Structure formats: structure tokens, C-alpha cells
């Protein structure tokens, strides 16, 4: 009897109170985790978040973080450069999870490992949970391979892509697609992605048209201190988000407007 009442309450809260705010979360992180916080039967469709999301940022060398979070990134040569971007994720003033990015660079080859986990509760009821993991290999600004897996509240997504001779072969939930030889994902950690006209959504593999505004210089609070930063506005279909970079091109923050007038934001740790 009690279990049945809890299930009915959860269903009511999801449909009536929380879906409007969370709908955008799933379509913004992903380009990772923000792609699909909601089941399609509620009409919110597939897509990152499209920010992750898919989900990385002051530039912080942090070897211990790699040792704890990404075992395979420990075996790198002394000449490799290791960096980490770790974000606390908020929906308005409610913390809902994290999105972390770990990068190893050796010459013109880079390996990225990102992971995100969101959970939204109202009182004692868990309304939504989301897990996303993505691994990419880059040569310069050209993606060489991608492997991602996502559990969006029980709905699975996978993406697998590899550079072949003269083309990039990409497979997602909707099938296989052949793309140009040099493509990019929503690589927030690399400002070069802002110059692209199309980007790969790392959650579902969709190849999206994007538009990016000219940068605007403004003050932004990062780790408790105000600093000058460049703000870019990006649009990709229904996804609209703002990104902030330092004057040295270091990723600092991300924000996206959620339905219902709420704000999804990444806070750099």
C-alpha cells in the first residue's frame, strides 16, 4: 500500500512539477548528459545536453585525480601533459551532480575521458537519474575515435566512431553515418570547437548544425573570484547555451536556460 502510494506520488511530481525544468537539462549536457533527461513519451525528444554535455574549466594539472578516476590514464609517458576539469552541476540553486573531464596530451595526440552523473530528487522521491561516460582520441583538432555510453533514466544510448581512410564512420542509436575526415564533438575544453559549423553529439551520435556568436568580454566569478572572461553563445537546434573562457582560452563555465525559466549551470571546482 505504501509502495503504491509512493509510486503514484512520484509519477504525479514528474509529470506535473519537475519535467518542465528538467527537460532542458537532458538536451544540454551532452552533447552529453544534457541530451535526454526525459523519456520521449513526454514529448521532449532525444537530445546534449546537447552540452555533455557530450558534459569540462580553468586548466588544472591534477595527476592524483587521474589516479582515482581513470586507471587507464595512469600509464602515460613523463612527456605527457595531464589536465582535469571538474564541475559541480546545478539546476538553479539545487546541486544535481557532477561532470568531469580528464585529458592526456602527448605531442599532437590527446585522449579524453569524461564522466557525468546527475540525480534529481524532490523531498524523498528520486525523480530522475543519469549516467554518461565518453572516451575520445584526438589528433590535433580532428577526432580519431569516440566510444560513449549513457543511461538516461533507464533509456540506453551508445555511440561508436572511428576514422577510416578519408572519412569518419559514426554509429549511434539511429544507425551508421559517414562523416568528413576531420570532425569535432562538443569539445568544450578545446575552444577550436567554437569555429565549427557542425558537431557530433556524444550522447546519441547526431551530427548537428551549430551557430556561435562573437565573444563578449565580461566579468565572471570563478572559484570565488571575479576575473575577465569571454562569453560565447551557442545554438544547435533546441540547444542554447553560454560558455565562458579566460583570456588565455581556458574553459571556465557553462550555463543553459531550462524550460520553466530555470538555469542549468556548471561550476568549476
How is this structure best described in words?
The strands form 2 sheets. Strands 1, 2, 3, 4, 5, 6, 7, 8, 11, 12, 13, 14, 15 and 16 form a 14-stranded antiparallel β-sheet that branches. The termini are far apart. With 269 residues, this protein is mainly β. A hairpin with a 2-residue loop joins strand 7 (167-172) and strand 8 (175-179). The chain has one domain (2-268). The longest helix has 25 residues, at 2-26. The model is unreliable at 12-28 and 35-76 (pLDDT under 50). 12% of the residues lie in helices and 50% in strands. It is built from 2 helices and 16 strands.
Key words describing this protein structure:
269 residues; 14-stranded antiparallel β-sheet; mainly beta; two-stranded antiparallel sheet; 2 helices
Alpha-beta content class: mainly beta
In round numbers, the mean pLDDT is 79
Radius of gyration: 18 Å
Report strand %.
Answer: over 45%
Please trace the helix and strand order, writing H or E for each element: HHEEEEEEEEEEEEEEEE
Give the helix proportion (percent range): 10-25%
| Ends apart, CA distance between termini | 44 Å
**Major sheet, described briefly?**
14 strands, antiparallel
Count of alpha/pi helices? 2
**Which spans have pLDDT < 50 for at least 5 consecutive residues?**
12-28, 35-76
Number of domains: 1
Shape: globular
Number of strands: 16
Describe the SSE topology.
Elements: H1 2-26, H2 63-69, E1 81-91, E2 94-106, E3 109-122, E4 125-139, E5 142-152, E6 155-164, E7 167-172, E8 175-179, E9 198-200, E10 207-209, E11 211-212, E12 216-222, E13 225-236, E14 239-246, E15 251-258, E16 262-268
Antiparallel strand pairs: 1-2, 1-16, 2-3, 3-4, 4-5, 5-6, 6-7, 7-8, 9-10, 11-13, 12-13, 13-14, 14-15, 15-16
